[in-house]
Amino acid sequence: MRVALHTKVRAGRAAAYEAAHREVPEELTDAIRAAGATSWTIWRSGTDLFHVLECADYARLHAELEQLPANVAWQARMAELLDVVHDYSGEGAGAGLPVVRELPA
Questions:
Q1: In this structure, are residues 17 and 7 in contact, taking their beta carbons and an 8 Å threshold?
Q2: Where are the domains of the chain?
């Protein structure tokens, strides 16, 4: 499945956010892959961040990462940099941006 997310970096923290993402702990990257993610791309426009991730099951991915110490530490680091955090919650672990249109096959 493909999930799109929208988050916001705090004003003046974009450089720190980007620097943090150059140093994502290997343990966390491995855990994200083990939880079923095959790709995760983040784009930034000003303070807006747009994520597209592909995974087998987004709810499962979230559940497997939720209590993982490496992820807990990462989320605490991101909380210092983000105004709007991942929409893991919101409408539940299946939340994400709704699809408006896709190019027909």
A1: no
A2: 2-84
| Regions in the chain scoring below 50 on pLDDT | 88-93
CB-count exposure of residue 65 (10 Å: 0-12, 13-18, 19+): buried
Instruction: Please write the tens of the pLDDT for every residue from 67-88.
Output: 999 999 999 999 999 997 765 4
Residue 9's closest CA among 97, 91, 93, 79? 79
Would you state the pLDDT for residue 86? 65
Q: Are 65 and 73 in contact (CB under 8 A)?
A: no
Integer Cα distance of 15 and 58 in angstroms: 28
**CATH class in words for 2-84:** alpha beta
* pTM confidence score: 0.86
- Torsion (CA) 28, 30, 32, 36 in degrees, nearest 10: -170
